[in-house]
Amino acid sequence: MAKVHVLDIAFTHGGERHAISPVLIQDAQDTILVDCGYPEFVPLLQAAAEQHGTTLATVNRLIVTHHDMDHIGSLAELKRQYPHIEIVSHESEVPYLNGTRQSLRLTQALASYDELPASAKEQAEAFMNLLRAVEPAGVDRIVTSGERLPWCGGVEIIHTPGHMPGHISLYLPEQRTLIAGDAAVIEEGRLAIANPHYALDLAEAVMSVRRLLDYEIEELICYHGGRFEGNIREALLQLVDAYSIDYDEQQ
């Protein structure tokens, strides 16, 4: 059975402590990296991999959950250092990864810029410049929802839009493990919607969480928060119910 390693990476940004949790899935034939952090994070990824007794040189597949900067910032650099790596993404993410379309997060930031108070514009401009600086990378394999990749005992693609239209989560049936990406995050020990005010479609994001209830999940890994501790099904139900209540109150 393939091993699943959570690469818990802590770092400082803007004077604040942050953490992300890319994932390595590894068996005797393949090593899959799921998401790869901000630009210039290759040394941090390497150090985290070494803590689990492996190296980035063993990675031969890299699955991208979506094109937010903290998930793809080191994608091009990794491909340069390890040209054998096969980059995998959902079909609708391809033009944002290869640079033929502007990042949806940049489009969103530009649309709200004029409404910001003057005191917030400098920070917004810095954020947009960071988004513009992310280096594009080509996609080697396009996947669709429901597709089951044959690596590491099987990796099922679950289209979980909302946070972004092409967002995917991954289900490992042998391990009954769900790699959520940003379909859900862990905040103070509870599951939550990732940055709900910035979700491209919040209602769809909640529906994506509901879709995860169709899977038998014994381990849930979030990109922001790592491994979830607690009753996973109950936590997913509580998250869906919380937003259902919010929608009822708005109507």
TrEMBL record:
The superkingdom of the source organism is Bacteria
Domain named Metallo-beta-lactamase is located at 19-224
Pfam families linked: Lactamase_B
List UniProt keywords, sorted A-Z: Hydrolase
Catalytic activity of the protein: 3',5'-cyclic UMP + H2O = UMP + H(+); 3',5'-cyclic CMP + H2O = CMP + H(+)
Q: Name one GO molecular function term.
A: hydrolase activity
Which InterPro entries does the entry link to? Metallo-B-lactamas, NDM-1-like, RibonucZ/Hydroxyglut_hydro
Sorted alphabetically, which SUPFAM superfamilies does this protein's record hold? Metallo-hydrolase/oxidoreductase
- The answer, when asked if Nucleotidyltransferase is one of the entry's keywords, is no
Its annotated function is as follows: Counteracts the endogenous Pycsar antiviral defense system. Phosphodiesterase that enables metal-dependent hydrolysis of host cyclic nucleotide Pycsar defense signals such as cCMP and cUMP.
| Name of the protein this chain belongs to | Glyoxylase-like metal-dependent hydrolase (Beta-lactamase superfamily II)
